Amino acid sequence: EFQFEDLLGNFHWNSQKNEIEIRELDIALEDDNHIQAKGNLPLDVLMFREEPEIESEVSEIVYQEIPLDFQINMKQADLNLLRLFLKEAFSEIMGSIDLELYLTGTTENPFMNGTIDINQGKIAMNNLPIQVEEINSRIEISNNQVNIPNIPLMAYENRFNLSGQFEMVHLVPENISLTIQNDEEKIIYQN
Q1: Rounded to an integer, what distance in angstroms lies between the CA atom of residue 81 and that of residue 37?
Q2: Mode of pairing for the β-strands spanning 19-29 and 145-155
Q3: Distance CA 151, CA 187 (A)
Q4: For 77, how many CA atoms within 13 A lie in the half-sphere containing its CB?
């Protein structure tokens, strides 16, 4: 379920390319948060297609070459927006986020670039004793490579630092490499 307070859009459908040009899209959410987007979206990507039993090389080439050109922006949005996607994950979430994402390439070979700035972030997870405080970090995405800078976190009263990277493969995180360090040389755990 996705609810919004106001929606403003200016769209153009190109029937020859079967593509929607989003000239302006502004989704106003609660607490004066906005998601803004613009760009071109091929409708073939958004629609469920049955795969033919016999694939022809020509249709495969045409499918692979559908260009992507899309941008999503958010300015000073409340981190609480994450609850839209992960409803039961957080017991506490605060802070703001600036997001600038660009999706280019083709449907078969998409590229994601951009930045995610987290300001005064604080996150506590349900069912996990993990609390992340004072997140003031920039996550950079360059040619599908996502780099997570050093982020301090607390787990079972222990201080850790989390950093890492992963790759977006067809817009799905893969090849995840995370480093968790504890500089205090002790870990407290109580069950």
Answers
A1: 16
A2: unpaired
A3: 18
A4: 25
